[in-house]
Amino acid sequence: MLQIPVAFAPGVSPEAGGCDEYARPRGETLFFTYTTLTLYILPLLIIIPCYTSIAITMIQRSSETTNPIASNRYKRTTIRVLIVGVFFIVMWLPIHVVHLWMAFDPTITAQTPLYIEWHTIANVLMFINSSVNPYLYAFGGTSNPFIRHLKDIGQCCCCGIMKLMYKMKGDTVTGSDRGNDHQLAKIIESSTSVA
Fold this sequence. Notes:
Layout: E1 11-13, E2 18-20, H1 27-64, H2 68-104, H3 113-138, H4 145-169, H5 181-194
Antiparallel strand pairs: 1-2
Helix pairs in contact: 1-2, 2-3, 4-5
């Protein structure tokens, strides 16, 4: 909903050779200021209090519990929440700074070599954040269901490798052969010695 006004910002740009994401000349200042406010500042105003509240709650529960496993879980959750928050702040700040730099400095255009370099670096950081975020949430501990599921997939892949190796040797795989690391090692060893 907050991005609906951006739909009305595009205009024709002689520099771009056609349509542009904002109308010139003041459009870029308004466009990048608005997107920085709605895509960075507003989320920060929501994330910081929420993540701080979660961290405080987890720290309090960690100190109240006598169960060391639960205490460690609370501490891991606190660390994970703080890492996700800091990661967002650090990785998304450069793209907004670079955009605002171009919007407010009349000597900088989208074709300025320095702008292109910094914009590329800022975009890479932003995409890294988006790519790494699921892993920051998912890999919070070994008791995590996501981790257990990945281990199951890994074992299934090993079963698939073992079946393939058996087929290459002309053998069949029985139910008791599945997941047997010792047999898998023997198969791999024998297939590499043959090749």
